[in-house]
Specification:
single chain, about 725 residues, alpha/beta, 2-enoyl-CoA Hydratase, Chain A, domain 1, Rossmann fold, N-(1-d-carboxylethyl)-l-norvaline Dehydrogenase, domain 2, eight-stranded mixed sheet, about 10% strand
């Protein structure tokens, strides 16, 4: 039989080689066609007496990236339609039967009576790794690119093809829970040490080794299907089990605050499944998976962190008709921490970088930052010396502005001061070659006002990186009123070239990300001034789903910078634009007490010398509070809502102000840019999944109690009246590249 996504060849020894190679795709995905054909191959090879065993491998550079999650999105839509037309019981039955198909098919591999071996090159993630786990043996390539893992929890799901049952039967359950709950990939050596891989060999020997195992020991029974099988961690109700599951439950609560139903379901599946035979355990997993798939958290996270992010990474906002561009040579003016970091990630991507500063020593210091980064990676075994040398060789530090003459793109990363930026532009502008694009890395100053210094404003654009640049995946591209399509396309292509995710926003003070996250920090100030205990403010911020509390976040970005932004806003827009009590708090912290944040070891927290212990809230912080509230009288749920709602309202305002024109960018940008509670799907999805009317009612409740910062914009009121959502009213355009 001929297959579309697989090729099956049986050799003289009766070993069928199944090669997964989807035509026209750079990566195999477990889509509907692959699932159907795999099921047919299992049936055919099982029934054919000439087949003695099966090796499954990939015809591409990697085994597979896992399941096509858009397929699951479609399943959810079908569920919603069936629920309306046929009732909840029929709809639930449909979802369970659909999600159980892969699990049942993989179980057929495991129990077919013929040995199956997975020969894995490159990555094998999600459902594809579960396919490998269902095989009787796994051979992995020794390439550094070989990684296996189950990352589903990162998009609000969990492994539904047997992963929660096979892993804890192969290894210590604590190790299995680590893999399942963190979703991190492991390399081939780690997979072998954990007992997942039977052999690690050169890529050229993968199939040969797999076939030799079949011809040699070739056992076609999984260990857990043999009589007398003992769980690696012992029975659930044993001393070892009691030392694992109660603490694991507590750790889960501490790490997730029960915001992620999928994480809870993983622990539940492992706990329940290990008490049952495999077939019953797999049914338990399928039932939990069908429940989680229908959760709003899974729907929101799949949409934002898989579908939308994938579309933005592929150029969903790239102007049509502009030929592809590639930056060969980049100049960065300003070799301070941000400029040096941008230079490093650009050099890492193979771009030649010129680092320009006021003198050679300052420029050299910028390159030294890159050296410190690569030296650290070498020490950790994450980079080879020859690659580090190549990265550093691409960075040229200089004080000579003439070096910009042959650059495709110039990024200005000087101090956040209009006068200094204007001086920089005056020096650089006459030296640029025809067609070169000039970008500013400003984080708050409006692009249109900066562009006034530019003769050809069509070539001027904002490219706002987030700190630390090496780790933060988001880049905000800011379009001015006169920015041209070529500048936008170049900026998007460059951001994709360095492996970051771009969002495109229109100009405004603070753009999108800073407008929203500064509301989070400001709400922390408000609570502090109200008398909420500082520790409670921080803990409630994390309980709401933010990565750190607002006071800790302010320390990271620097309190004096927050004060500077306030003063600049006040100078431009007047005293009414800035809450004076908040400003006075920061003046007290910065100007009277010299508490600038982490950078000088003193902020809302005290920071011990490196290695001397954890940071601690500054004990005297309470003395800055006008009053002190009893924490037992405070509504924790309301405090959590305040943190999320104040950011979501601001995101809605950015849509009304035409700063955000595509809801995907608000959602992806809010999660990647400032860690807005990922389980919500992002700032606008938080509103959509709550329901616009419900959200507006909540806004009015908080507005009445706490003030106008919670006042919903007219756009939201209008949407609530019409029952609209952001993804309905502002339907995103599909990718063009």
């Amino acid at each position: 039989m001929a297959y579309k996504n697989f090729k099956v060849e049986t050799d003289a020894d009766g070993i069928a080689l199944v090669t997964w190679d989807i035509p026209g795709k750079s990566m195999n995905v477990l889509d509907a066609t692959s699932g159907t054909e795999l099921a047919a191959i299992v049936e055919a090879t099982t029934a054919d007496p000439a087949v003695k065993g099966v090796v499954i491998t990939s015809g591409k550079d990697s085994f597979s990236g896992g399941a096509d999650l858009t397929m699951l999105e479609g399943m959810n839509r079908a569920y919603a339609e069936m629920r309306k037309s046929q009732g909840e019981e029929a709809a639930n039955k449909y979802v369970f039967e659909e999600v159980a198909k892969l699990s049942q098919n993989l179980r057929k591999i495991e129990t077919c009576g013929k040995p199956w071996v997975a020969a894995i090159n490159g990555i094998a993630f999600g459902g594809a790794f579960e396919l490998a786990l269902a095989c009787h043996y796994r051979v992995l390539s020794d390439s550094p690119k070989t990684k296996v893992g189950l990352p589903e929890v990162k998009v609000g799901l969990f492994p539904g093809g047997g992963g929660t049952q096979r892993l804890p039967r192969m290894m210590q359950p604590m190790d299995a829970l680590q893999m399942l709950l963190k979703g991190d990939a492991i390399d081939a050596a780690k997979a072998k040490s954990l007992g997942i891989a039977g052999a690690v060999v050169p890529a050229a020997d993968l199939v040969k080794t797999a076939k030799e195992w079949i011809k040699g020991v070739g056992k076609a029974v999984a260990p857990w299907d043999e009589k007398g099988f003992k769980l690696p961690g012992g029975p659930v109700y044993s001393k070892a089990g009691m030392q694992l599951f109660p603490p694991a439950n507590a750790i889960l609560r501490r790490e997730t605050y029960d915001n992620y139903p999928a994480a809870r379901a993983i622990l539940q599946c492992v706990y329940e499944g290990l008490q049952l035979p495999m077939d019953a355990a797999l049914r338990i997993e399928s039932r939990w998976f069908s429940k989680i798939l229908r959760s709003k958290e899974a729907a929101a996270m799949i949409r934002s962190l898989f579908v939308s992010m994938g579309e933005l990474n592929k150029g969903a906002r790239r102007p049509a008709g502009v030929p592809p561009t590639k930056v060969q040579k980049l100049a960065i003016i300003g070799a301070g921490f941000m400029g040096a970091s941008v230079g490093y990630v650009s050099a890492l991507a193979g771009i030649d970088v010129i680092l320009i500063d006021r003198d050679q020593a300052s420029a050299d210091k910028g390159k030294a930052h890159a050296k410190a980064v690569v030296d650290g990676l070498i020490q950790k075994g994450r980079m080879k010396q020859d690659k580090a040398d190549a990265v550093l060789a691409r960075i040229t530090p200089t004080a000579d502005y003439n070096a910009v003459k042959d650059c495709d793109l110039v990024v200005e990363a000087v101090f956040e001061d209009r006068k200094i930026k204007a001086e920089t532009y005056a020096k650089a502008q006459p030296l640029l070659r025809d067609g070169a694009i000039f970008a500013t890395n400003t984080s708050t100053l409006p692009i249109n006002s900066l562009a006034e210094e530019w003769k050809d404003q069509s070539k001027f654009i904002g490219i706002h990186f987030f700190s630390p640049v090496e780790k933060m995946m988001l880049v905000e591209i800011i379009v001015g009123k006169n920015t041209g399509d070529v500048a936008l396309a170049t900026a998007l292509d460059y951001v994709r070239q360095i492996g970051k995710t771009p969002i495109v926003v229109n100009d405004s003070r603070g753009f999108f990300a800073n407008r929203c996250v500064l509301r989070y920090i400001a709400e922390g100030y408000e609570m502090l001034l109200e008398g909420v205990p500082p520790a409670m403010i921080e803990n409630v911020g994390k309980m709401a789903g933010m990565p750190v509390g607002p006071l800790s976040l302010n320390d990271e970005i620097a309190i004096d910078l927050a004060l500077k932004i306030m003063k600049a806003t006040e100078a431009d827009l007047g005293a009414q634009a800035v809450p004076q009590d908040q400003k006075n708090l920061l003046v007290d912290m910065v100007e009277k007490r010299g508490r600038l944040g982490r950078k000088n070891g003193k902020g809302f927290y005290d920071y011990p010398e490196k290695g001397k212990g954890p940071k601690k809230l500054w004990p005297e912080l309470a003395s800055l509070q006008p009053k002190h509230l009893d924490p037992d009288t405070l509504d924790v749920e309301e405090l959590k809502q305040r943190f999320l709602v104040v950011q979501a309202v601001e995101a809605a305002r950015t849509v009304e102000d035409h700063v955000i024109v595509d809801p995907r960018e608000a959602d992806v940008g809010s999660i990647l840019g400032f860690g807005f509670a990922p389980f919500t799907g992002g700032t606008l999805s938080y509103i959509d999944f709550m329901g616009t009317k419900t959200f507006v009612d909540l806004c009015h409740k908080l507005e009445k109690k706490y003030g106008s910062r919670f006042t919903p914009p007219k756009l939201l009121e209008d949407m609530a009246a019409k029952g609209e959502t952001f993804y309905g009213r502002f339907a995103p355009k599909k990718a063009v590249a």
